[in-house]
Amino acid sequence: MNFNEKMFELGNHGSAIRELFEYGNKRRKIVGDENVFDFSIGNPSIPAPLIVNETIQKLLNEKDSVKLHGYTSAPGDIVVRSKIADYLNKTYNANVDKDRIYLTCGAAASLTISLNALLNPGDEVIVFAPFFPEYRVFIEKAGGKVIVVNEADDLTINFTDLNLKLSDKTKAVIIDSPNNPTGAVLKEDVIIKLSKLLKEKEKEYNHEIYLISDEPYREIIYDDIKYPFVTNYYDDSIICYSFSKSLSLPGERIGYIIVSSNMKDSLSLYKAICGSGRALGFVCAPALFQYLVGETIGHTSNINEYKKNRDYLYNALKDLGYTLVYPDGAFYLFMKALESDAEAFSRRALKYDLLLVPSDSFGVKGYVRLAYCVSYDMIKRSIDAFKKLKEDYDNEK
Amino acid sequence: MNFNEKMFELGNHGSAIRELFEYGNKRRKIVGDENVFDFSIGNPSIPAPLIVNETIQKLLNEKDSVKLHGYTSAPGDIVVRSKIADYLNKTYNANVDKDRIYLTCGAAASLTISLNALLNPGDEVIVFAPFFPEYRVFIEKAGGKVIVVNEADDLTINFTDLNLKLSDKTKAVIIDSPNNPTGAVLKEDVIIKLSKLLKEKEKEYNHEIYLISDEPYREIIYDDIKYPFVTNYYDDSIICYSFSKSLSLPGERIGYIIVSSNMKDSLSLYKAICGSGRALGFVCAPALFQYLVGETIGHTSNINEYKKNRDYLYNALKDLGYTLVYPDGAFYLFMKALESDAEAFSRRALKYDLLLVPSDSFGVKGYVRLAYCVSYDMIKRSIDAFKKLKEDYDNEK
Hints:
The structure is a homodimer. Chain A is α/β, with parallel strands linked by helices. Chain A is 43% helix and 14% strand. In chain A, the strands form 3 sheets. Chain A has a 7-stranded mixed β-sheet, sandwiched between helices. In chain A, strands 9-10-13-12 form a 4-stranded antiparallel β-sheet. In chain A, strand 12 and strand 13 form a beta hairpin. In chain A, helix 12 runs parallel beside helix 14. At the A-B interface, helix 1, helix 3, helix 4, helix 6 and helix 7 of A face helix 1, helix 3, helix 4, helix 6 and helix 7 of B.
């Protein structure tokens, strides 16, 4: 092979999630759609709110074609950025500056652009198990080293281990709230505690430690939880956002990066982000969808549908005797496997056509992830399969 | 600065083209829109064909929201890829395989994804002066070294210098036809000659030399010229395409990569491209615009408008005594500066509110680029300014 072997490996071995999803597609053809219980993939099942298509129609009718489909400035249309800043400042009592927002092709792009702007070869980036597996891919491609903090008892932040893992080489820390795969939201007290620790370490090491907050599920929170907006708590913070989940537009690739305006080097880092987006080939975020999110800011899909799914699935599985992490948000349920080997458990679940992602690729052992962004009917039909799976294990005792 | 300095530099110093464009925006406010003759930027001035907005309407009306706006597979929707392959095979008598097409967020993404898939640190990539300045940014970010082949007399390919610059370290060669900034099309005999030389060198060095053909202007050719489709001539070729210019959709970010199916390692390189797209954070190309280009394949904006511009501008400037490269395609005119220092010439042109990009950033000296994707009226109004600029120099003699 005369080209880049690492890139080949990444293309050759898809993620465990994708592989399970493809298996499900094959099974459907054999046993029928209604008999496969596919909890593998985080693809929103709720349609975009009606205002999305209505607004696209309006933009097509009212805006001149050359302007509508033309290049915007590289960081994104300034009117759209103003609307996003105004909305966030009103909603979270925040201090977001339109000139520190950089519109992107979604959360993955937000992360890669930020990481490539931040990292120099050998820099360390801390992630908390369980974490979204692509973090590893993005960090390593940007030249960084992944440092995994072991899972906490409640699967949020293990501060004892974090303290051990922070070092002079730590350039950034990534948090993800609501979390994929657990659905847990980092509450205000946790963000305060984290900020305090990072500030101490910044002083100790005499350099910045950037807090990257990956927030594609920010609007998908079910109960009455106050979402702590990180730039209000920690100056050296960067927010990576996507409209994929909140507006059910995952294919359209639209999101943003916010550089905290309280950061000392705020403008310089923002420029590095512009440079990074340029060098990675992003040019600008898709123009029509920039205008769309500007016009529809504050709207979301009908999140209550996911809540209905969560409540039903969580309670039904609990009643069957499964051990679960209670999800505050996102559309994932993290469930303890019935044996220590999550991959073996996931394989046995396939006997009942239950597609559950083993937790190993998320950096923890002994769990499976259920993506419940699926139809309510499928969830109801799946309970009998979960019952059989449980009995299968019970009968072995 | 505690982050990546190179990315900061790229964000801090925009391109010369962008800077001139911003200057034009300021001048317009002072002397009025109609008195600024802005030839700085390659932003299509012709609207997208009507079928574009009609098709978007149709997709919104007919396609289920979850499917329309949902993730596609990472390389792009398979039906869309089939349509693109069929169209290209019919049009160019080519051998494009739908499973070797990877849909991207435009030509810049096509290039960065391809380069990151190909390059290992220290690999050399050859470009031909004059070349699109962002090539340098993309190649260096992907870990490669830029090797510039000096300009030929006709500003296409200088084979003598190419022969000297090819080496055991050459991983790839980038061509760009129709060319930005000259508008020249590489004719079939040139592609045959280039392929022959590269094949010889592949044998000599006993490894592949990939030919990357950057073709965003492929459909913008005015005269009766046969476009040589590179995969028909050279097995180790990769095509980087964008619909930005042909459909006047530069802001929407939609294009593709084709890996030649005649390549020995075709599937492996395709997988490396999938891995590279993943690691750079692209996920998938914007879904709505994937379906759009599938439905409208073969359509273009009204290219005749650019031809009208070319003919008028070329002839008028020639009549004034300027020396010009005759452009076969794209929407750029490359004109000899009236002094050896192109930047000084460009500055003097500003006296007459003529915005012309000096050729230095394209890797050659003594020329300016005129982007004539502007209104016909502006071109007509500008001729008097070009006349005064010429007289200004003539009076010095």
